[in-house]
Automatic annotation (TrEMBL):
Signal peptide: none annotated. This is Uncharacterized conserved protein PhnB, glyoxalase superfamily. The lineage of its organism: Bacteria, Bacillati, Actinomycetota, Actinomycetes, Kitasatosporales. It comes from the Bacteria. PROSITE patterns: VOC. It comes from Streptomyces indicus. Residues 4-127 form the VOC domain. Pfam families: Glyoxalase.
Amino acid sequence: MAQSPTITPTLQYADAKAAIRQLTEAFGFTETALYESEGGVVEHAELAFGNGVVMVSSKGRGGAFDQAMKNAGPFGLFIHVDDVDGHHGRAVEHGVEILMPPTDQDYGARDYMARDLEGNVWSFGSYSPQAAS
């Protein structure tokens, strides 16, 4: 069994269903869990990419976390990908707003930046951060 990620970003969206569509179709995430309440409110969703997971929910659900996040964001996330240019091409094909095209960085990595439907900034690149051992 694969080890669960130690860090799991949690994002809230006014239109969580549209965000999930964009993250899966344009960015290549896989929906692994989706819990909805009446009216199609996304109470909790999990989207996997490699060995990482992003949790997504609808804004305005109530509860302590929803209240704490009321004025938060946008957020920035970095995702390691093997094929930066191919990943970028997929995002462009799906109409994603590109903030920086694939660029070779001074530290040896290649990456690009995109903005999701609600303003979060996603960087996808070849850099692979290493956790402390």
